[in-house]
């Protein structure tokens, strides 16, 4: 092709790119309507810069070509590619999604041009398609089907069947590009003119931000683009993020865009951590506001690093990467900064090929900086667009609730991402194949289970990942700092059992058990800050524990020395004690006392209520420390709950606050941004001159005290605008103060937080006096006994009217009105009390005024309504409602019956019934069926929701390789859209019906993207939805091959199955499939084959004997199994095989299968099957003689005696059916459950799941949107939303009680947290009374994770009406069976043949 048909807008600077373009130019046709443009850029409608290698106008459409000239071979999927060149592998993003976006943007730009508007010729709608040209690759790349059809090589130009780039362009219309005969010579001239009007230009022109020249595009988002940039004078490399002004059409919009960029800059303000990429500057540029970041051209993204190097890393190296990421996020969380989009794509790896790769978190554009130490649960948002989940690989690392805009729970969303990334780093596998698969995987294991993906997983490592990724937000670690506590245990567990002393020279790689200079041994790694590493260490000589702080590097050495100089002379009980300064690996370090096991921030976040006495004392401690520092002329500069430890006095056990981290003490006074928001005085910049002062120190102390009292800092104005830009004074949470102290505390904080520092307290001593004065009412006599201010704090929703303090007459009136509880009282409109008839004014006033005051004092008790807000994407329930016409009740027409049967909605309907089957079943003619369907299609065409399902199905089918079964699509629709129905059959029925309606709708439009294929043969078990008949035929062939394999004896190995399916002939024009997709499709289509839990292909309905023989390996090396456990294990392995029979038939079957087991009615582990090859301790019945080592009888230590007493109480409760509350340390809760069920088999019932199920059912009955109810759980207890939630919980509680009281076998009740949270503790009293009673459950036990010994309590609520005989604490000696080792306890084992069942209720 010659000029002018070939238009080189500019010459490429790269030889390999010029060579690829020359190849195109030399082989393209040189006649109408062909045209080509090379090496240009355009600005799209959003202001983004888009570079184009080549744009070719063919008779079918415009084709945008992205040329890739890297030699070697390529493999990849829809997200990333791996290039292998001369033995070296390089990971890159799949270039097709970006090329596709460019094509759509260019089409949008061209549509706006006058040349195509129809004013000067025919109106033309430009059609632009993407194509990837691999000019240096000679071997066909191994890519996913969706990408492969858009990737071409050089091919063999001139040959009729040329598969290369030229052949593809010549046959563009035949291959599905554009539209046949869409472009003629006239249209070509118009398109050429439109490109000129669009302003295409040479790349790089005008691309400059200040002194930086923009280079290649690094990445982009909805409203930003990242470029590599070079400083024109110094040559320094930077990454520059631009927010294009083209998105803003008004001055106000431009201002909002600038504020967006400034906000991203502000959230990273003041951060200094090696693991967080810093923003260096904010610039205004012609293209838009821009941010300048650090940039390392050699850094790799973590996802690319994992694909390249992960398999070569040892476990210790992988754990180090997890720790680096965790410490960076812990530092951010300490600064109230939450990423909210953490994924491997947002993490850079520096020195990726070195011995110690270093991680750095980037991409904070959706981050938030929250205020306060509290964290709560977020509502789980539904999938917004299935296309987003298919194209963005980072979404599989995001928490299910991460799409919610709220900041509440952002820390736990980050924790989920930490756990998901840790899962990938440790197992070598991503958390899920796609975001649609993730929810099911999370529900199955209550989080991600490492043991399912790798061998040899330790208990703490498993629990670290599972706890971080549990779908229940409140069950996760509260922030990254708690995640690091799990990691520390996992590292300790993974260390050698008897390690040789290891002396480390680099603190960055130090781990528990390592030895440091000066006789110090690392006990635990505490974290990494902006200037130092922190460790808990032990002095070998004395056994004392200290905190060691070591400078990160030489650049931070002066800060550590300065902090040591500050701490050395300080002597105060509430300031961390300096022990010594030292040197570790040539770096300065500080040894100081340990400031307690947890910080004030952790206490606040933990939800543990502080008594008024502790609040007063903690405030005195903090202000006393500030006063001491003030008198000594020492500045702390970062007073906040995270820098305050809570320690216990050795002698008295009393708590004391300890202020630590003086790293900012020597910061320049002119630096008014040093510190942490919201504790940093926002008005420092308004001082003249702007300088830090002691007023700012006292301001930080006041913010900390306010947060300690109510859980959140105070706010200014709307809580969003910068305080210094508005005139409001601080908003104090007065209504959350104790009524007796309210006035004094309000006066204290109003003065301490005044905008004008001259109006604040003059010094810390005056502030301390005011604090003590605010608490002085505690020292005076309490108010009258009947005062509502005294009564209100101890009431709950179920409290009786008598407890409210009404007189006899008032109680009688309320009784007549049917008002017996606080909940009922506060639900009555006060106007109703005003107009009571037959009641004197005095009584009316008493009732009205006391109820009004109670509502003011306890807003959390006031009931209200929760309204449904269903403005989002249509669920399957909403879609199902649109399938049949809406008619009045009783108006049941024949066409409705036809449609219900055809869609499979009726219970008796045949799956995917044909028109003939429908006519026969309904008793009508085929013509009537056709008419009903035609009317339905007309109505469905008007439904935007059903048309959206068509597009979603098209995308899902394309991703599945062009074909999928109806049930496969139904499962994915349920994952993306959801259903509130609990019955799995009903959920599936609705999904299938929706798919059939969408298929019918698709068949009535042109072009048709997919069609269903249902065979009438009896053996055909699956209905296919396919993009072509060839793809459907290929699926049928795979299914028949699987049927044939399943019939073989013995069963084929997984490797042979893969080989056999791989040689199934692929019809011409059918899509090739990956091995995994082949297997899944074959199983889905097969009439008789199934897949075991271990990936074995077997026949559905396989005989019980065959299943038992194959499963014998899973029963090996187990001493004893109950009948239920043995049957469950075989069933778990082969879920679609014939069930094993019960005894005595099971005994004969085991004998026939060759199982070496015997049934015992009494054994050491209870009734069950016992192995013949594993002897019992103390038993002489085994056929295999073993020389056992016998231990002497256990010494009767106090711990052993206490464990025996616990055993006796449990045995008695099991025999008599007595209710028993069992408390245990939270970290041992899972061990306790396992041991209890092993020794005393019983059903497991999760009260939390039952409660959520009952609440959801009640919400559905009241037409309340369940996501709305979940959102209310995150609200403050005194908010209207939370009160409404309490009302919903109270209405759901009887269902829970009914289900528990209906149990007819012993049960262990677990997870009781919601019972206390929703004020339903009286339910437990009902359970305790019913346990073992006539008509009640035979035995109910309640397992309560509780940190401290003492009477059982749940979240601070004491269990009601419970005696010492009804509770005990499970100690470590009991869990370790210390009372049963060697000698035997007086208590005997309880051997109840009750299989362990976990009652699962979908939530």
From TrEMBL:
Residues given in the record as ATP binding sites: 549
Pfam families: NERD (PF08378), Pkinase (PF00069)
Gene Ontology molecular function: ATP binding; protein serine/threonine kinase activity
Domain spans labelled Protein kinase: 212-503, 520-772
Domain NERD: 12-129
InterPro entries in UniProt: BREX_PglW (IPR049832), Kinase-like_dom_sf (IPR011009), NERD (IPR011528), Prot_kinase_dom (IPR000719), Protein_kinase_ATP_BS (IPR017441)
Keywords from the named record: ATP-binding, Kinase, Nucleotide-binding, Serine/threonine-protein kinase, Transferase
NCBIfam families found in the cross-reference section: BREX_PglW
The name this protein goes by in its record: Serine/threonine protein kinase
């Amino acid at each position: 092709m010659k000029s002018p048909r070939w238009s080189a807008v500019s010459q490429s600077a790269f030889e390999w790119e010029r060579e690829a373009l020359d190849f195109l130019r030399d082989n393209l046709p040189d006649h109408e309507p062909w045209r080509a443009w090379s090496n240009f850029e355009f600005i799209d409608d959003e202001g983004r810069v888009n570079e184009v290698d080549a744009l070719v106008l063919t008779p079918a459409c415009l084709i945008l070509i992205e040329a890739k000239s890297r030699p070697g071979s390529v493999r990849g999927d829809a997200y990333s590619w791996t290039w292998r060149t001369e033995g070296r592998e390089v990971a890159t993003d799949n270039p097709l999604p970006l090329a596709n976006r460019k094509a759509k943007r260019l089409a949008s730009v061209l549509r706006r041009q006058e040349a195509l508007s129809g004013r000067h010729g025919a109106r033309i709608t430009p059609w632009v398609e993407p194509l990837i040209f691999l000019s240096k690759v000679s071997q066909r790349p191994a890519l996913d089907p969706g990408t492969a059809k858009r990737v071409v090589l050089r091919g063999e130009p001139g040959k009729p069947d040329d598969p290369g780039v030229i052949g593809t362009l010549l046959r563009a219309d035949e291959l599905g590009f554009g539209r046949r005969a869409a472009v003629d010579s006239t249209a070509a001239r118009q398109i050429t003119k439109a490109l000129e009007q669009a302003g295409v230009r040479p790349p790089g022109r005008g691309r400059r931000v200040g002194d930086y020249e923009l280079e290649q595009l690094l990445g982009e988002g909805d409203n930003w683009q990242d470029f590599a940039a070079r400083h024109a004078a110094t040559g320094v490399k930077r990454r520059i993020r631009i927010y294009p002004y083209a998105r803003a059409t008004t001055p106000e919009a431009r201002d909002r865009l600038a504020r967006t960029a400034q906000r991203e800059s502000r959230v990273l303000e003041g951060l200094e951590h090696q693991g967080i990429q810093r923003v260096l500057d904010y610039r205004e540029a012609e293209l838009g506001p821009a941010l300048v970041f650090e940039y390392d051209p050699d850094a790799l993204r973590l996802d690319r690093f994992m694909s390249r190097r992960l398999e070569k890393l040892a476990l210790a190296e992988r754990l180090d990467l997890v720790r680096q990421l965790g410490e960076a996020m812990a530092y951010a969380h300490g600064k109230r900064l939450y990423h909210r989009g953490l994924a491997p794509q947002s993490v850079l790896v520096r020195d990726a090929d070195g011995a110690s790769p270093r991680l750095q978190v980037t991409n904070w554009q959706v981050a938030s900086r929250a205020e306060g130490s509290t964290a709560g649960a977020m509502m789980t948002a539904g999938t917004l667009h299935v296309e987003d989940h298919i194209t963005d690989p980072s979404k599989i690392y995001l928490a299910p609730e991460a799409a919610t805009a709220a900041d509440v729970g952002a820390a736990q969303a980050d924790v989920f991402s930490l756990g998901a990334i840790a899962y990938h780093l440790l197992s070598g596998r991503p958390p899920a194949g796609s975001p649609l698969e993730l929810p099911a995987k999370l529900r199955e294991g209550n989080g991600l289970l490492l043991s399912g993906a790798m061998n040899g997983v330790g208990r703490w490592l498993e629990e670290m990942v599972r706890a971080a990724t549990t779908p229940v937000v409140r069950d996760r670690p509260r922030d990254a700092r708690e995640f690091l506590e799990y990691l520390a245990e996992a590292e300790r567990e993974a260390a050698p059992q008897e390690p040789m002393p290891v002396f480390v020279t680099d603190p960055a790689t130090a781990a528990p058990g390592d030895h440091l200079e000066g006789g110090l041994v690392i006990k635990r790694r505490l974290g990494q800050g902006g200037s130092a590493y922190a460790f808990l260490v032990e002095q070998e000589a004395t056994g004392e524990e200290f905190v060691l702080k070591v400078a990160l590097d030489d650049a931070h050495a002066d800060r550590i020395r300065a902090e040591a100089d500050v701490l050395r002379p300080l002597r105060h009980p509430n300031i961390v004690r300096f022990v010594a300064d030292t040197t570790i690996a040539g770096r300065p370090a500080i040894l100081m006392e340990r400031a307690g096991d947890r910080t004030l921030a952790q206490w606040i976040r933990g939800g543990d209520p502080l008594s008024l006495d502790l609040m007063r004392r903690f405030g005195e401690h903090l202000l006393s420390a500030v006063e001491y520092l003030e008198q000594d002329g020492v500045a702390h500069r970062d007073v906040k709950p995270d820098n305050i430890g809570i320690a216990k006095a050795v002698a008295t056990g009393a708590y004391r606050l300890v202020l630590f981290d003086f790293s900012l003490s020597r910061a320049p006074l002119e630096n008014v941004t040093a510190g942490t928001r919201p504790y940093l005085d926002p008005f420092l910049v308004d001082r003249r001159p702007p300088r830090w002062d002691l007023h700012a120190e006292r301001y930080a102390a006041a913010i900390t005290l306010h947060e300690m009292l109510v859980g959140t800092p105070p706010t200014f104005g709307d809580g969003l605008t910068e305080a210094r830009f508005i005139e409001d004074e601080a908003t104090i949470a007065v209504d959350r103060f104790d009524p007796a102290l309210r006035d004094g505390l309000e006066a204290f904080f109003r003065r301490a937080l005044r905008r004008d520092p001259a109006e604040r307290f003059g010094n810390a001593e005056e502030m301390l006096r005011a604090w003590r004065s605010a608490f002085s009412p505690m020292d005076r006599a309490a108010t009258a006994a009947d005062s509502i201010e005294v009564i209100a704090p101890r009431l709950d929703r179920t409290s009786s009217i008598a407890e409210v303090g009404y007189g006899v007459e008032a109680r009688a009136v309320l009784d007549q009105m049917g008002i017996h509880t606080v909940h009922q009282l506060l639900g009555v409109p006060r106007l109703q009390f005003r107009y009571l008839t037959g009641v004197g004014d005095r009584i009316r006033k008493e009732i009205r005024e006391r109820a009004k005051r109670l509502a003011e004092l306890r807003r959390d008790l006031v009931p209200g309504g929760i309204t449904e807000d269903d403005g989002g994407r249509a669920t399957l329930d909403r879609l199902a409602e649109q399938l049949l016409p809406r008619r009045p009740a009783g108006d049941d027409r024949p066409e409705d019956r036809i449609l219900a049967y055809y869609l499979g909605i009726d219970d008796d309907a045949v799956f995917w019934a044909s028109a003939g089957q429908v006519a026969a079943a309904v008793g009508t003619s085929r013509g009537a069926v056709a008419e009903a369907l035609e009317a339905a299609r007309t109505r469905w065409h008007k439904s935007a929701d059903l048309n959206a399902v068509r597009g979603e199905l098209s995308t899902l089918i394309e991703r599945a390789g062009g074909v999928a079964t109806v049930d496969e699509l139904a499962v994915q629709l349920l994952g993306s859209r959801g259903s509130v129905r609990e019955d799995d059959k009903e959920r599936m029925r609705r999904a299938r019906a929706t798919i059939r309606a969408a298929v019918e709708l698709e068949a009535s439009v042109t072009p048709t993207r997919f069609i269903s294929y249902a065979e009438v043969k009896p053996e055909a078990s699956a209905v296919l939805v396919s993009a072509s008949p060839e793809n459907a035929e290929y699926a049928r062939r795979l299914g028949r091959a699987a049927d044939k394999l399943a019939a073989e004896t013995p069963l084929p190995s997984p490797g042979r199955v893969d080989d056999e399916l791989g040689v199934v002939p692929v019809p011409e024009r059918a899509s090739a499939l990956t091995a995994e997709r082949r297997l899944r499709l074959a199983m889905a289509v097969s009439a008789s084959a199934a897949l075991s839990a271990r990936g074995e292909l077997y026949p559905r309905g396989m005989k019980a004997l065959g299943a038992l023989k194959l499963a014998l390996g899973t029963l090996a090396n187990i001493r004893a199994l109950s009948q239920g456990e043995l049957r469950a294990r075989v069933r778990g392995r082969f879920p679609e095989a014939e069930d094993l029979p019960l005894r005595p038939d099971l005994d004969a079957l085991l004998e026939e299968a060759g199982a070496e087991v015997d049934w015992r009615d009494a054994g050491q582990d209870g009734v069950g099957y016992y192995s013949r090859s594993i002897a019992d301790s103390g038993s002489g019945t085994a056929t295999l003689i073993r020389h056992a080592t016998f231990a002497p009888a256990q010494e009767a230590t106090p711990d052993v005696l206490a464990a025996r007493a616990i055993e006796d109480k449990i045995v008695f409760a099991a025999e008599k059916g007595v209710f028993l509350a069992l408390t245990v340390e939270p970290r041992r809760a899972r061990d306790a459950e396992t041991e209890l069920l092993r020794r005393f088999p019983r059903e497991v019932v999760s009260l939390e799941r039952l409660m959520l199920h009952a609440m959801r059912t009640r919400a559905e009955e009241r037409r309340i949107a369940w996501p709305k109810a979940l959102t209310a759980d995150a609200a403050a207890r005194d908010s209207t939303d939370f009160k409404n939630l309490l009302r919903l919980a109270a209405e759901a509680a009887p269902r829970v009680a009914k289900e528990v009281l209906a149990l007819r076998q012993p049960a262990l009740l677990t997870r009781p947290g919601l019972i206390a949270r929703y004020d339903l503790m009286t339910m437990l009293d009902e359970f305790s009374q019913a346990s073992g009673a006539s008509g009640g459950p035979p035995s109910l036990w309640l397992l309560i994770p509780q940190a401290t010994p003492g009477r059982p309590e749940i979240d601070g609520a004491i269990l009601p009406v419970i005696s010492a005989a009804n509770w005990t604490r499970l100690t470590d000696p009991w869990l370790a069976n210390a009372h049963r080792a060697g000698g035997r306890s007086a208590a005997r084992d309880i051997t109840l043949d009750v299989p362990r069942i976990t009652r699962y209720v979908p939530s």
